[in-house]
Design brief:
The protein is built from 23 helices and 26 strands. The protein has 586 residues and is α+β, with helices and mostly antiparallel strands. Helix 5 crosses helix 7. Bound molecules: adenosine-5'-diphosphate and D-xylulose.
């Protein structure tokens, strides 16, 4: 039997199939700009100033096209036991009155999905995209209703964000009353795709619903104040809730959303019993693509740096996001996004390489500086934010200091260090230290780390963002394992320094992840299919199942030379100075 996983991202729709041994057996993709040029999207979206959205019809065409590619490749569609997947987060699809009926009536003989559903099934032709920036007013209103950004984060796991679905729905209800009034149901992109495959409109999936600023995570239901505020005057919280399909599909009550619609059975040869399990958001599916346990951290060193952490600590902050874990009960996924990642490092690399040469993308000198033990930067620290930073939330700035290693006090602000090689060390260290610091409140404590914190040493409070913790919190809590992905994870020197600063207790790993979101969907479909049908025991939770069955060859264990414990502890003395340095930023 095979299991399909979809990934509907900004620029493409990918579909993967795995077999029972979790090996990928088929892989097809539809690229929106290239394969569906008649929608005239740029990188998958329409941008008009602050407004960014995507045509829903394009996604329908992409679904037919990717399944056609699968069938044409000779893949045995009849052997697919279950499907799941992931989609770009926060987007919302507006189904028009009568859409449910139209979904039920879909018929393979009557043409493709787009012909049968567009435009009649939708009250808006487009779905807001996560890059949209047009909801500042709505965000302010929603935050003020609950008391501010901290209160909003406490309730919904995130402060109000432009791209989050609550502010987006609120804007549409205010600015497009006619469209809102004729809307029968509102889906997230994930529940939209689930609905199309099932041939009926299904409710939202809980983990992805945490990206709306409407869902009360501690109470595990929609927040009444927020749904009331997001609903227009001419409707009610109950009216909005009804459009959202009532309560969400809970992550800890895994259930099939139904079997695949007869449209897909007749058109592509699926078995009529093929089950559809709830799709989720793409970041949430990423953590389902790996055998991650509590306190594991995934560091994505792409253009920006994103850190995902598996936690049982509900410690929300306006600076990052918490979502309910899509597959492991009582767990959350923390997501911390730093805007200054690779691009900031590239600037230092270019300064070291100097002008004139043809060194281009050559990281040799940067890496040599990073690994040069004779280059002493033990009393130096810098923040390198050529772009405004999200965490901490400050304007673009670069600042260098030296500090007193005994007291942690700043000694002087420096225009430059002795040479740009120092910047290579300092930028990677401070990026990694910032990640370590933001992850700390989400980790469970453990006494084994305390050997590095002598009882006689002072234990002052240190402040970062909205947190005021003891220094010992930062110098004792460590991740279990750290996984590195993304462009710069190919760079051994950068990964080494990140690994030393983060200080995983049980190893560092690297992996290629071109398929992670779709693969997370495949794994979820396979596990849920077996779990829901009783083919595996109730005690075989998703994490256990994946730990036992994950193809280990996919993971590269990174060996860090030297004593990583000592290396990690050596960065403790930079924590208080970094707190002081950040306090000087606007
Ligand atoms: P995206 O975040 O857009 O998906 P990638 O994950 O592909 O992008 O990461 C792109 C970044 O990776 C580039 O900005 C580049 O600086 C960085 N990168 C690629 N190779 C290396 C390398 N060998 N050393 C350091 N950085 C690298
Ligand atoms: C997450 C976010 C993006 C999209 C990309 O909050 O907005 O990562 O999910 O598809």
């Amino acid at each position: 039997m095979y299991y399909l996983g979809f990934d509907l991202s900004t620029q493409q729709l990918k579909c993967l199939a795995i077999d029972e041994k979790l090996n990928i057996v088929c892989n097809e993709v539809v690229e929106f700009e290239k394969d569906l040029p008649h929608y005239h999207t740029k990188k998958g979206v329409y941008s008009r100033g602050d407004v960014v959205d995507c045509p829903v019809g394009m996604w329908l065409e992409a679904l037919d096209l990717v399944l056609k590619k699968f069938a044409d490749s000779g893949f045995d569609m009849g052997s697919v036991g279950a499907m799941s997947g992931s989609c770009q987060q926060h987007g919302s699809v507006y189904w028009k009155n009568g859409a449910q009926k139209m979904l039920e009536m879909l018929n393979a003989k009557d043409g493709d999905l787009v012909q049968q559903l567009c435009p009649e099934a939708f009250s808006r032709e487009t779905a807001p995209n996560w890059q949209d920036h047009s909801t500042e007013d709505q965000c302010k209103k929603l935050e003020s209703i609950v008391g501010g950004p901290e209160e909003m984060a406490q309730i919904t796991g995130s402060r109000a964000h432009f791209r989050f679905t609550g502010p987006q729905i609120m804007k549409i209800a205010e600015q497009e009353p006619a469209a809102y009034k004729e809307t029968e149901s509102i889906s997230l992109v994930s529940s939209f795709l689930t609905s199309i495959l099932c041939g009926k409109i299904v409710p939202l999936e809980e983990a992805d619903a945490c990206g709306m600023n409407l869902y009360d995570i501690p109470a595990r239901k929609y927040n009444e104040q927020l749904t009331q505020a997001a609903a227009p005057k001419y409707d009610s919280a109950a009216g909005l809730l009804k459009r959202l399909g009532g309560q969400v599909v809970k992550c800890d009550e895994p259930a099939s959303m139904g079997s695949v619609s007869s449209y897909f059975v007749d058109k592509y040869g699926f078995n009529k019993d093929c089950e559809i399990f709830p799709f989720t958001g793409d970041n949430l599916a990423t953590i389902c693509s790996l055998p991650l346990e509590k306190n594991d951290v995934l560091v994505s060193l792409g253009t920006s740096t994103t850190v995902l952490v598996i936690t049982d600590q509900y410690h929300p902050s306006p600076n990052y996001h918490l979502f309910i874990h899509p597959t492991i009960p009582k767990y959350y996924m923390g997501m911390i996004c730093f805007s200054n990642g690779s691009l900031a490092r590239e600037k230092i690399r270019d300064a070291i390489n100097g002008s004139g040469g043809d060194s281009g993308n050559d990281w040799t000198r940067f890496n040599a500086a990073l690994l040069d033990d004779s280059l002493d930067n033990s009393n130096e620290l810098g923040v390198y934010f050529p772009l405004g930073e999200i965490v901490p939330s400050v304007k673009a700035v670069t600042k260098r200091i030296t500090f007193d290693e005994n007291t942690g006090e700043i000694i002087e602000y420096r225009e430059n260090f002795d040479n740009p090689k120092h910047d290579a060390k300092n930028i990677v260290e401070s990026q990694a230290l910032s990640a370590r610091i933001r992850v700390t409140p989400l980790l469970n404590g453990s006494d084994t780390g305390r050997k590095f914190q002598s009882k006689t040493e002072p234990d002052p409070d240190v402040s970062f963002d909205y947190d005021n913790l003891k220094l010992s919190d930062y110098t004792t809590k460590r991740p279990n394992r750290v996984y590195f992905v993304g462009g710069a994870s190919k760079n051994d020197a950068i990964v080494k320094v990140f690994a030393e600063v983060m200080g995983a207790r049980n190893g560092n790993y690297r992996l290629e992840t071109p398929n992670s979101c779709a693969l997370g969907g495949c794994f979820k479909a396979l596990w849920l299919h077996k779990y829901a049908s009783g083919n595996i025991s109730r005690s075989t939770t998703f994490d256990k199942f994946l730990a036992e069955n994950f193809p280990k060859k996919e993971l590269e264990c990174i060996n860090i030379a030297g004593d990583i414990d000592e290396k990690w502890a050596s960065y403790n003395k930079k924590i208080a100075p970094l707190s002081r340095l950040e306090a000087t930023l606007d």
